[in-house]
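Please check this record.
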Amino acid sequence: MHRRTLIAAALAVPAAARAQPRWPDRPMRWILPDAPGSGNDVTARLVTPLLEPVLGQPTVVDLRPGAGGRIGVEAAYRSPADGYTFLLGNAGSNGINAAIYRDLPYDLATAFDPISLIVIGPNVLTVNAKVVPVNTVMELIDYIRARPGQLNYASGGVGASNHMTTELLKYQMGLDIQHVPYRGTQAMALGAISGDAPVLAGNLVNLMPFIQRGELKPLAVTSRTRSPMLPDVPTMIESGIPDFETIAWNGLLAPKGTPQPIIRRMNAELVKLRDNATLRERIAAIGGELVMSTPEQFAARIQGDIAKWKTVAEVANIRAE
């Protein structure tokens, strides 16, 4: 009788529910639009091993660098929305690119389902003090204004976050300073150190070695609060630049239409990691802050960045071809 009761109860469950597989029941993939060794790569390799035991499946980290992040983002965009492919997007690939590319086959504001911000971190405005003898942001602004068109600033390429950060400063303060794009972090730092482009706003963790050696002088960080890595360096807002904030970030997204129970589960597991002291310390060691967020907060960050960078790109006529 007991066995018959169990069978009857099982048959009473709708067929669709009985056929629904447990998620996840096979390995997952995180696509990264980044190069090996990047901050996002490090983040993924710190976070995914902590998720694997609770989800019960391994995660493959799939690096797809190139074209300012477009290659990786498009690979994720064309992937099935089945809960097995995710995108670890960043401020460039999922924010700035909406402003500088005319031919994206998707709308970055709506093409993915945000799950959670994971890490944020500031840029830092620096100078080669041997060439530009200033101590504060306002002194730098006065120095540039006294020499319109004569100074250069370095970036890691057209549309890079350091390029857009400096263009935002130009836009807000009405400055005339020339852009010199380099190929990557090392090259742009050497351009600043050589004096060819002595002004440089770059990711804090990337520029810390040059700051520690005294080759670049930090004037301000671009976050709203000071960085623990440079506690004596003020923010841009403290330095007199109203409402100035540019944040490097990464966060997990899924192809549009991924089932909401999967989005909620992934968000819940990521949020639990926010209190992992070891993870927080390891993220801090690479210059980031472990934040996690709701999907709605992440969506607001993406939409705000896109709106800001579209304004800057239009004023500065910045386009990536």
Remarks:
- Confidence is low (pLDDT under 50) at residues 13-19.
- The first helix runs from residue 2 to 12.
- Strands lie at 28-32, 59-63, 85-90, 112-127, 152-155, 178-181, 199-203, 217-221, 247-255, 289-290.
- Residues 2 and 132 are 85 Å apart (CA to CA).
